[in-house]
UniProtKB/TrEMBL annotation:
Residues 8-195 form the YrdC-like domain. Its main location: cytoplasm. It comes from Loigolactobacillus bifermentans DSM 20003. L-threonine binds at residues 30, 62, 117, 177. It holds the Pfam family Sua5_yciO_yrdC. One of its GO terms (biological process) is regulation of translational fidelity. The lineage of its organism: Bacteria, Bacillati, Bacillota, Bacilli, Lactobacillales. It is found in: Cytoplasm. Required for the formation of a threonylcarbamoyl group on adenosine at position 37 (t(6)A37) in tRNAs that read codons beginning with adenine. InterPro entries: DHBP_synth_RibB-like_a/b_dom, Sua5-like_dom, Sua5/YwlC_C, Sua5_C, T(6)A37_SUA5, TC-AMP_synthase_SUA5. This is Threonylcarbamoyl-AMP synthase. ATP binds at residues 53, 57, 113, 139, 147, 191, 230. GO terms for molecular function: ATP binding; double-stranded RNA binding; L-threonylcarbamoyladenylate synthase; tRNA binding.
Length: 348
């Protein structure tokens, strides 16, 4: 199948492809999603196939307005209304209990709840309105790879497997939305994102966090959390603070193997021994770093000689919580001491 690139003026064509049961990737303010008509069972099944995604991992319903949520949920908690008022459209996904027979098992992974999101992207909101139904959309990457923040990332992973990509340039936030479960007594953050715990608590009061690493045989709260994520081909070595950067660079250089450096401009300025082609800039703040992280991991995936990536950490406050959550996943949850780094290299 030829994968078309749709521009903003071709939204009617993209909507027609969705209505015909085809898959169309769409932009959001977080990452690109892989869209299908949520009410078309065959189309939703194709999403799992195209991504290579395990079918027990439920999908987010992207909606253009609150009415679509009202039509589907059994119980619309006050807290949901307050959060929607404060953060929609935006990077907060809300899990609520469904009315019976609203969406299929293929969408919900067999759960009695579903995740709703109103993305802050005008082209995609117009696309959902043109279709007239919610669009399911996991991130539009091959399962296990970093989420796409550019249309070309989607094209790289899914060309030939999907009907088209609605291209609206680079995404803004760069990390997937915050997922908040509102189906329990106390709301729980299942995935951290740009809308932080403090942001949410300022609106609805105290909530909980549940982002522990879920083992493959555990029944996870957010099923997606048990799968390997964001894994580049190289081993990511997190350099937790800028103070350790010079030591990490010296150590990696002494191994006489090409390595990549994913860091802020300030740290890259110290990396004089690393060729420009093996450096990828995270800009200079945690915001720019979040926007660039997945593109950086993908950049080094195109360089098979790179077996190790030194990646800069940020303090786990504000957006840093979500950034470090994704960076730790890309590193396989591992931190290395200098001795362990050495062991790592001797294994190549
Ligand atoms: O920013 C985003 O959220 C992007 C864009 C495209 O909207 N989407 C995204 O979707 O990241 P996905 O499928 O890659 O991640 C959705 C997460 C998964 O971890 C999934 O297990 C969880 O949300 N999830 C979905 N429905 C759920 C439910 N009913 N209960 C618990 N977790 C759920
Ligand atoms: Mg994903």
């Amino acid at each position: 199948m030829e994968t078309k690139i749709y521009t903003r003026t071709q939204i009617p064509e993209a909507a027609a492809a969705l209505a015909a049961g085809e898959l169309v990737a769409f932009p959001t303010e977080t990452v690109y999603g892989l869209g299908a008509d949520a009410t078309n069972e065959a189309a939703v099944k194709k999403v799992y196939q195209a991504k290579g995604r395990p079918s027990d991992n439920p999908l987010i319903l992207h909606v253009a307005d609150v009415a679509a949520v009202e039509a589907a949920v059994a119980d619309f908690p006050d807290k949901a209304r307050q959060l929607i008022k404060a953060f929609w459209p935006g990077s907060l996904t809300l899990i609520m209990t469904l009315k019976p027979n609203t969406f299929s098992k293929t969408v919900t992974g067999g759960l009695s709840t579903a995740a709703f999101r109103n993305p802050n992207n005008a082209a995609t909101l117009a696309l959902i309105k043109a279709l007239g139904r919610p669009i399911v959309g996991p991130s539009a990457n091959t399962s296990g790879k970093p989420s796409p923040t550019l249309a070309k990332h989607v094209y790289h992973d899914l060309k030939g497997k999907i009907a088209g990509i609605l291209d609206d340039g680079p995404t803004g936030v760069g990390l997937e939305s915050t997922v908040l479960d509102l189906s329990t007594e106390t709301p729980v953050i299942l995935r951290p994102g740009a809308v932080t715990k403090a942001d949410i608590e300022a609106v609805i009061g105290s909530i909980e966090n549940n982002q522990h690493h879920v083992a493959a045989d555990e029944i996870p709260k957010a099923p997606g959390m048990k799968y390997k994520h964001y894994a580049p081909n190289a081993q990511v070595v997190i350099v937790p603070t800028p103070a350790e950067f010079q030591a990490a660079l010296d150590w990696a250089t002494a191994q006489h193997q090409p390595f990549g450096v994913l860091a802020t401009d300030q740290q890259l300025a110290q990396a004089t021994q690393v060729s420009a082609a093996n450096q990828f800039s995270l800009g200079d703040t945690v915001e720019t770093a979040s926007r660039a992280l997945f593109a950086g991991l993908r950049y080094f995936d195109l360089k098979p000689e790179i077996k190790l990536i030194l990646a800069e950490g940020f303090p786990k406050t504000g957006l840093g919580v979500a950034y470090m959550n994704r960076l730790e996943k890309s590193a396989g949850q591992k931190y290395f001491s200098k001795d362990e780094w050495l062991m790592l290299y001797s294994n190549y």
